[in-house]
Structure prediction request, 223 residues.
Amino acid sequence: MSALNLVLLGPPGSGKGTQGERLQEDLELPYYATGDILRAAVREETEIGREAKAFMDRGDLVPDEVIIGVIAERVDSHAAEDGFILDGFPRTVGQAEALEQKLSELGRRVTAAILISVPDEEIVRRLGGRRTCPNGHIFHVEFDPPSQEGVCDVCGAELYVRDDDKPEVIKHRLSQYSEKTEPLVAWYEERGTLERISGTGAPDAVYEDVRALLATLRMEEEA
Ligand SMILES: [Zn+2]
Prediction:
């Protein structure tokens, strides 16, 4: 069977991370989330990490040249031979072109760019309610409240709103997302690789749609 090279698209808070993790378990493909890769670099205070941190702290996107190198190395690795799931990359047409270039050097292409779409107001509701503890345990005032308000159930530390989850930063991220990602969505659409999935339902229901889509893609690949 041919490799399944997937790109997940969707605004912050669309749940694409959750879908990506399920896909990873189901398909046993490596899952590359740019956010995780960058946050690890920030924690480890690598050169790329320090560079990226300045942008992330402002809610801005990390520039292409910083990210492209990291991703190219991973899709070209032994682990990604049977395919991969990319989350958070590409984010711009420039990045998509760099990815296409890299994959064509390897005799491959993106099988599908899966767009998980959720209305803006729903995203502000989802992200604005998130509360985090210093040890990374995450709660939600509406969907997953801690038993005592403002205190982590797991470790007892005080909960806070991550800079990324502050309403003004969410709005800034969403407007950046639209501005930069809508041309990317159009770019994949022109190539016939864009697949739209509604992300407003519960994670299980959304994942059923993703699975149905993959089954169709595989039938088409094998036909
Ligand atoms: Zn905690």
